[in-house]
Amino acid sequence: MRKIYVYEDHEVLNLEPIILTRPAFDLRCGAFTFLERIQKSFPDAEIELIVRDELKMVTQELYPELTVNPTLVEEGLWILGNVLWQKEDFEKISKKDYQFYYNDGVLTAAYLRKDIGNNWLKMGGPVKDKILACPTISEIKSKVIKYLWDAVNLISDAIQVDKEYFQSTNSKNKSLDGIHLINENNIYIKSFDLINPGVVIDASNGPVIIADNVKIQSFSLLQGPLFIGEDTVVQHHSFIRGSVIGPVCKIGGEISSSIIQGWSNKVHYGFLGNSYIGQWVNFGAGTTNSNLKNNYATINVTVNGNVVKTDELFIGLFAGDYTTFAIGTTLNTGTNIGPGCNIVTIGFPPKRLKPFTWFLNGKRINANEAKFFNSAETMQNRRGKSLSEAEKDLLTRILIK
Question: At the fourth CATH level, which superfamily is domain 161-400?
Fold first, then answer.
């Protein structure tokens, strides 16, 4: 059986704040996470995972059937998790030859002998440093997600890659009363009976994929490329385009070119654009972010302690898990807010807030641990879930860091 090691690399913290609470290959882009896409492409492989030490237990809970952070490895294929892999590149790297595969200077995959793999682990592995051994080098087209805005910019590409796993709707659905489909052959819907009259689904600019048990209320407009995950509710009068909405969300207002990891609420009016949002995030009514500076200048974002000049015109909000926004919150371009934050203020909050910061009326306050965990537990209980001990341990580590 083929051995595959899916790993995070030493630059993973450039994907904050979302990766502070999950491994990089669990990020969502398109209909699947990066790991789900690898699993679908190598269904018969034995996959093991290599992550930061502090994420080992949480990752083991996410993937109980897989080995996490093995102490010894065999000969096999090593794959960087935060890559939007193309089918032709999967075919290329699956060949058993000792090559290193790069995209834009980043190692994305390598077939390693047993001794090279174990020596790398002894040196700290991919999460600590680059591998030194470097046989034949080959360039591939699959793009590395170096920063969160890279994932946002690849939404269209990801949905095009993923649509082959879904069956398009067929002509008999045209007769459904009050539902208007545009470019029907590019629309993929699991539960048509949960779509109310007055909904328009437009796949002219890209596929629209709607997973199982998604309820879409009347007078909503959905424009592709778009993915909406299972058990999500789209409120009436919503306008959603060019986005990825993870499972079990409540969505409303206007959303454009954004990714929501899942289990989050943006129920009310307000604009969310060119953003990446974690899980268990709640937006109060009227919360709106800017995604374009009024002087049309490129946007800088503070990531992992560094100011990154992105050369991008459109960048919105990055918000970590369990962060909440009070009603009427306004957010600047390129805002990066860590997990566990609470924003209650008039005017723009700072463009960078460290994890577990309560920004109240212009003042930064460290989150109260007991109050945070009480709120987090309440959020999960409302969805029939509860915080695990591994989650509590990881969140506590981040909170007291």
Answer: Hexapeptide repeat proteins (2.160.10.10)
**Of residues 214, 219, 207, 210, the one with CA closest to residue 178:** 219
68 has pLDDT over 90: yes
Q: Which CATH number fits domain 3-146: 3.90.550.10, 2.40.50.140, 3.30.530.20, 2.30.30.240?
A: 3.90.550.10
* Strands, E assignment, 274-373: 276-279, 282-283, 288-289, 300-303, 306-309, 317-319, 324-325, 330-331, 335-337, 342-344, 352-353, 357-360, 363-366
User: Can you give the pLDDT at residue 132?
Assistant: 66
Helices (H) and strands (E) in the chain, counts: 8, 37
Do residues 271 and 288 make contact, with C-beta atoms less than 8 angstroms apart? yes
> Which range, 117-131, 160-174, 337-351, has the best average confidence (pLDDT)?
337-351
Q: Say whether 240 sits in a helix, a strand or coil.
A: strand
Tokens of 45: 């492989």
Query: Residues 86-92: what's their mean pLDDT?
Result: 92
Judging by beta carbons within 10 Å of its beta carbon (0-12, 13-18, 19+), is residue 220 exposed, middle or buried?
A: buried
Is the pLDDT score of 214 beyond 60? yes
Residues of the chain with CATH 2.160.10.10: 161-400
Distance separating alpha carbons of residues 381 and 324, to the nearest angstrom:
17
